[in-house]
Amino acid sequence: MLGCWNVRGLNGPNKQKIVRDWILKSKLKIVGLLETKIQIEKFSGVVSGLNMQAWKFISNGTKGMARIMIGWDTRECEVNCIHVGQQWMTCNIQYINCNVHFTVSFIYVLNTPAERQDLWAYLISQSNAMGDQAWLLMGDFNATMKAADSYGRDTRWVGHKQDFGQCLHQAQLQSLPYRGLKYTWHNGQSNQRMILKKLD
User: Residue 74 contacts by C-beta under 8 Å, 6 or more apart in sequence?
Assistant: First the structure.
């Protein structure tokens, strides 16, 4: 089982316990943790705080802050990180006790449309390299696929908002169906100031 969560910080012991409980309750074998806000020099302390026996953790942090963290149960699978960027970590996954292997990219985008261009280019180039190999993308794209995925103020569909959908189209990627509430983000306002979005 594979999971991904935008944890919005993983430095405190309470959040570490919540994440650990989620991993154990969900019986996850591989996790991508996003927006970890971990200073590189504190990474080993956070891993110790998670207290996950037989698990290994890596991050995309080289200096400053780790934005993405990947963990896996070494008794269940082998993970080989093949690409690391500021907005992604791509890994080859091999389950030990069965012949299941695939590639997964954990994504946590930067905030501005200009900063995201590197990610869109990476996904398009990587899709060409993948061929027919199974490739899963998980994470926080902080973007909507189409204008109908937004409700409230600022529903203008300006050019940069098309980048995500165009990237998925060019990379020949498909969004999986979802269940539950349509909108996954709310700006905390009400009445005319309310904005709702289905963020992927």
Answer: 54, 55, 56
